[in-house]
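Let's sit down with a protein and look at its sequence and fold side by side. Once you have written the record down, we can walk along the chain together.
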Amino acid sequence: MRAILYICHGSRVKSGQQAALAFIEKTMETNPAPIQEACFLELADPSIAEGIAHCIARGATEIVAVPFLLLRAGHANVDIPAKLQDIMAHYPDVPLYYGEPIGVDERMINVLIERLQETTEQIPEDAAILLIGRGSSDPATKQDFARIQSLFQEKTGLRNVSVGYLAACEPFYEDEISRLLEQKPDNLYVLPYLLFTGILLKSIERTLKKINTSTAIHFCPALGYAPEIHTILNERADEAAERKRELYVPCYA
């Protein structure tokens, strides 16, 4: 009997944990798999080990593990597979198929645009847009964001679109905000490419509140709940199950 294990990142902020679990519960309603569980990589419970144990206790004879992460980077490529490898050594008779993260997907760009439009109904053509990503030392992150930036510009027709990161790679988002404000735009839209509220989102909000400028700064909400994401997660689970390669780790060379 197949089980799907959704692996969330985790957050020190309780509301972020609750939002992730609530989202996965809605995703479970759209998937016919008989056993479905959610767990966290870090900072919250249940852990990955507990999630796997719950699946097996419910009768799972095979597990599809889906990382509920936006992009390919160290967590999806290294940290989660390493944990799964160690844990599954205790269950040699249960195959585990590892899926891919959400990745760069045109449907996610549509969600991003929806969040922008929720902030202001009509976005001025000359507005400055800053997309903010979590950041990673993995060079694939910047490659992915270059594609996201390109797709976003293509779909919106907006020209002044930049990318900044919260950590681990450059440009740092605060530096990018300063650079954009030097241009003295009438409007600056700060658009986080993050799933839910959490420490990172709150840190951006604090930074924006400290800025003294004549530019109107609009802070857009996180990606949050969207039916498109449910669909993508279901597709990632199906893809992993169809491959049937145990603890398959995507190769992004």
Notes: Helices lie at 14-29, 48-57, 74-88, 106-119, 139-156, 173-182, 199-209, 227-243.
